[in-house]
Design a protein that fits this description.
Layout (H helix, E strand, L loop, with lengths): L4 E10 L3 H7 L3 E4 L9 E10 L11 H10 L7 H10 L2 H8 L3 E7 L5 E9 L5 H38 L14 H5 L9 H15 L3 H9 L6 H4 L5 H9 L3 H10 L7 H17 L25 H4 L2 H5 L1 H15 L5 H9 L27
Antiparallel strand pairs: 1-3, 2-3, 4-5
Length: 374
């Protein structure tokens, strides 16, 4: 909800398309036309625009950045090291890690709603070294996830190639072998189907590829790449898009390999992992970030190792659910891997600082004792 609104009264012809257009560009309106917006009449309307202000914060040299966080209550014991980190990592990036260390103020609005305001100054005991420790911890988690997600991505590419390749070498380009909604429905706000979005994305990847196998194939054959070669050019996002567009029978066959009882769960789990892969690949903060792509919850008893996710919505909304899904798939793909042990060891390095707790990543208090992680 914006803090303030700018109200503008307009007089014009109001049509059935004008007011929806106002909605589309983010305007709230109240019309004085009693005939309703569907009629073409002359009337007036109030447009409510969010009242935003220009950005006026000045550039701050690193020395001034240090002075500012000190003035707000953060302890900086080694200014030389602090300057080095701010020069190499950046104030703005690090601010995402010290945000939980800032003080909060809780007030009650006239409506009775409880409002939490994050203040500029820091909690007592906040130190710059803790921020760096949290940054390093987050980097460890991202590297751990990239390691396991590589194995999962390759396994799913192979699963799809084996499942669809039996029908046709070019099954990924054949609409009759894919789900009808994927090939025929045009999502709202788009100009083409998800199938053609997928084909366009893939064809651009082929055109841009410098891979030797692609050069050889294009120079030798007139056909597009067969699916067992095509999947080698899919990133996790492309894989996730395609998996969601496969026929139910084929999703079921792949889901069965991993002990997933309902095929409709699988695309949402892979979409979650694709989102996390994106975050990690772009070096963004991960440990307490809400998931844009939340995995669909299994029912209790469907996948016993993931029962705790079925009962914990907050865990599904945060990083922990992605780590749990990755661990689940890793156990199926490579049960002898030490990844789970190494992940737990990395999490054990979570730093101590005011305002932060591992639970903010969505992890249950007893997560390390769960069968999933044994």
């Amino acid at each position: 909800m914006p803090k303030a609104l700018l109200c503008i009264r307009i007089y014009s012809y109001i049509t059935s398309t004008a007011l929806p257009l106002a909605k589309l560009i983010g305007l709230t309106y109240i019309t004085t036309n009693t005939a309703g917006p569907s009629a073409l009449v002359h009337g007036s309307a109030f447009l409510y625009l969010p009242l935003v202000q220009p950005y006026t914060k000045p550039f701050l040299p690193v020395a001034d950045q240090i002075a500012r966080i000190q003035a707000r209550g953060m302890v900086v014991t080694d200014k030389g090291k602090a300057q080095q980190y701010l020069e190499n990592i950046g104030y703005y990036r690090l601010s995402g890690y010290w945000y939980p260390l800032r003080r909060s103020q809780i007030t009650t609005a006239p409506s009775g709603e409880i409002v939490t305001t994050v203040l500029d100054d820091f909690r007592s005991g906040s130190e710059f070294s803790q921020v760096v420790d949290l940054y390093v911890f987050d980097k460890k988690l991202r590297l751990m996830m990239l390691d396991v997600l590589e194995r999962i991505e390759i396994a799913f590419r192979t699963d799809i190639a084996l499942q669809l390749g039996q029908y046709d070498p070019w099954a990924y380009r054949e609409p009759t072998l894919l789900d009808g909604k994927f090939t025929a429905d045009i999502p709202k706000g788009r100009s083409k189907t998800r199938f053609w979005d997928f084909i366009d994305r893939f064809d651009r990847a082929v055109s841009d590829s410098k891979e030797d196998f692609v050069k050889h194939f294009r120079a030798t054959y007139s056909n597009p790449l067969p699916i067992w070669a095509a999947v080698e050019l899919w990133d996790f996002g492309t894989l996730s898009m395609f998996l969601s567009g496969m026929k139910y029978r084929d999703q079921r066959a792949i889901a069965a390999r991993y002990g997933v009882p309902r095929p409709e769960l699988l695309p949402t789990w892979v979409r979650t992992l694709a989102f996390v892969r994106n975050v990690c690949a772009h070096h963004s903060r991960m440990w307490n970030k809400p998931l844009v792509a939340e995995p669909r919850a299994p029912r209790v008893g469907e996948v016993p190792l993931l029962d705790h996710l079925a009962q914990d919505k907050f865990a599904r909304e945060r990083f922990y659910s992605a780590a749990a899904l990755a661990r689940y798939f890793q156990r199926q793909i490579n049960p002898n891997s030490s990844w789970g042990t190494r992940f737990v060891a990395a999490v054990d390095t979570f730093p101590q600082a005011p305002g932060i707790a591992l639970g903010q990543a969505g992890s249950p208090a007893d997560w390390k004792t769960l069968p999933l992680w044994s």
